[in-house]
Amino acid sequence: MIKLDRRKFLLGSAATLAAGSSASALPASKLAQRHQGYGAAATLWDLQADPRLGEAISTYCTQVVPVLELKWPMLRPDAHTFAFERADAIYDFAQKNDLTMRGHTLAWYHDIPDWTKQIKDSKAVERAYVDHISTVVSYYKDKLTSWDVVNEPIPDNPRDVKDRRDTFWTQHLGSSWIPLAFRTAAAADPYVKLAINEYDIESAKDSFIAKRAAYRNLIMELLDQGVPLHAVGLQSHLHAELEIDTHGLAEFVTEIRSWGLEVYVTELDVNDEKLTGSPTERDAIVAKRVNDLLTAIWTSGPVRSILSWGISDRYSWINGYVKRPDKQPNRPLPLDGEFKPKPLMDVISKFTKDV
Ligand code: 9MR
Fold first, then answer.
1. GH10 domain spans which residues (predicted)?
2. Does the model's pTM come out above 0.90?
3. I want to staple 97 with a disulfide (CB 3.0 to 4.6 A). Which of 58, 151, 190, 318 is the partner?
């Protein structure tokens, strides 16, 4: 098992500070109110369509992550083009509002453009993969705090701890697709923190426990191979009807940290489709789940990066994907559809003081 290289760790911290240290045009009183280390995902479309969204992020957050703009389909209309304009516009928003920005995501089974899938020769697939990661990470060198390098590598209901998701990349590159992504990213920017990211590992259901065990096994293998991995993302797309596995999760996080890795909460939200009751009752359960999640993680120390996948219920992917039986909107995020804070924002506030 390798430990994180200390020099790299210190340089990484310096780059992180530098990325957010430009003189701010915002009043000190506004900056002081922000929840330190809290961030939200947003699309450029929503930021441009509704000024309340940018205002909310700038009021509560210290960081932002693009939902779509750094994924292959938006960056890569074809094999020869890198279209950075939309991601750059979110980066400008971050700069103007004194926010840091994370990158999401470089290597994923999903969102692979058709032109890429049409490549038949494995060597050509490898060239396109390395070219993409290298070009995108180099372009944002010294600008981002961290990258979700590999996203969602574990299948749902894994057969055993060695089970990995079968992806287009695996079909052409075998299991090397994961180490290759990290090594390529590290060569392009030696200071940015490199993360792996996964969902459905937080609750006590058997399939979640199995997924967590496979995730742990993969992380351990990567470290054993000397892969430059710095952080482990817990997406935390929680399901309101499921209890958090507080004991198992605390144990997992403690072990990950003992290996020299950081732990980030990367995509927090709570799907309440299976909850009955009034909005007030549902909001209380949603807040409790997140309180349980963060308490479990905190048993071995604070989390310096907590991002929710959106900030207002008005702009949540969940409302586009699932419908509650009572036809009421889902309430997964810290602000309601009118940008009013809900109990979940109090939980985030509690866990982002003095980090
Ligand atoms: O919320 C995102 C949705 O708008 C996109 O259509 C989808 C495909 O790009 O990705 C969603 O975000 C996902 C994230 O990238 C990875 N973890 C799960 C997120 C929710 O599905």
1. 41-351
2. yes
3. 58
Residue nearest ligand 1's atom 3 by CA: 317
Distances (CA, A) of 134 to 60, 141, 172: 33, 10, 18
190 contacts 116 by C-beta, under 8 angstroms: no
Closest-lying ligand 1 atom to the alpha carbon of residue 199? 17
CA-proximal residue: ligand 1, atom 8 (nearest):
111
Query: Is the pLDDT score of 219 beyond 90?
Result: yes
CATH architecture observed for domain 3-352? Alpha-Beta Barrel (3.20)
Cβ–Cβ under 8 Å, residues 318 and 337: no
Cα dist from 61 to 99, 106, 281, whole Å: 7, 24, 26
Q: How does DSSP classify residue 2?
A: P
**Dihedral over Cα of 18, 20, 22, 23: its sign:** negative
Predicted confidence (pLDDT) per residue in 23-48, tens digit: 577 889 888 899 999 999 999 999 99
The per-type count for the chain, helices as H runs and strands as E runs, is: 15, 10
pLDDT tens string 88-107 = 999 999 999 999 999 999 99
Ligand 1 midpoint to CA 67 (Å): 7
